[in-house]
Amino acid sequence: MTRDIAKVPGPFAGLSVKLIAAIALVILLVEVAVFLPSLANYRVGWLEDRLRVGGVAVRVFDTVPDVMDLPAEITDPLLQAAGAIAIVYRREGQTDLIGLEAVTMPEQPHLADLRDTNPMRLIVEALDTLVMGGQRTLRIVGVPPGAGDAVVEILMPESPLRADLLTYAGNIVLVSIVIAGVTAFVIYVLAENLLIGPIKRLTNQMLAFRESPENGTLVIVPDAARKDEIGILERALADTQAELFAMLRQRRHLADLGMAVSKINHDLRNMLTSAQLLSDQVANLDDPQVQRLAPRLVTTLDKAIAFAQTVLDYGRQQSAPPRAEPVDLRALGFEAALSAALTGHPRIVFENQVPDDCVISVDPDHLARVLTNLFTNAREALDASPEISSPHVRLSREHTGDGVRLVVADNGPGLPPRARENLFVAFEGSARAGGTGLGLAIVRELVEANGGRVELLATERGTAFAIDLPSGAAAGG
Question: The Histidine kinase domain covers which part of the protein (predicted)?
Answer without folding.
Answer: 263-473
